[in-house]
Amino acid sequence: MDASPAWITAGVSTAVAFASGIVAYVRAITRNDEQIKALREDHAELKSMIDAHTRMVGESLQAMRQHVSDRGDEIAEAQMWNRDTFVRRDDHAQTIGGINGSLASLRSLVDSSMLRLNDKLDEMRKGLEEKIDRIKN
Q: For 3-88, where are the alpha helices, taking DSSP H only?
């Protein structure tokens, strides 16, 4: 094999290109490793933030459950009081109907009493007018 300067130059150029490729590859891997490391750090930070928020929400929900549980007896008592105190819709309608009927009969009684009273007043007026006429004559 004849080692001519062209072959040597080509070999050296190839070796230099190969070495440059390896250096670029190592730099790319290193850069990727740095990016992966940064992503892992961001991921860990986000995970810790999510865990903190999850813990806060869980504690809030637990406090709400406890509050409702503590108030359960009070709510049941209030429901029973409402049930026992307030009238049902049908009972209310029936009661109002009875009151309206009583008012109607009372109104007719008052009307008839007023008519009788007006008749008596008319009789009294006529009687007074007759007496006044007799006194004048």
A: 5-85
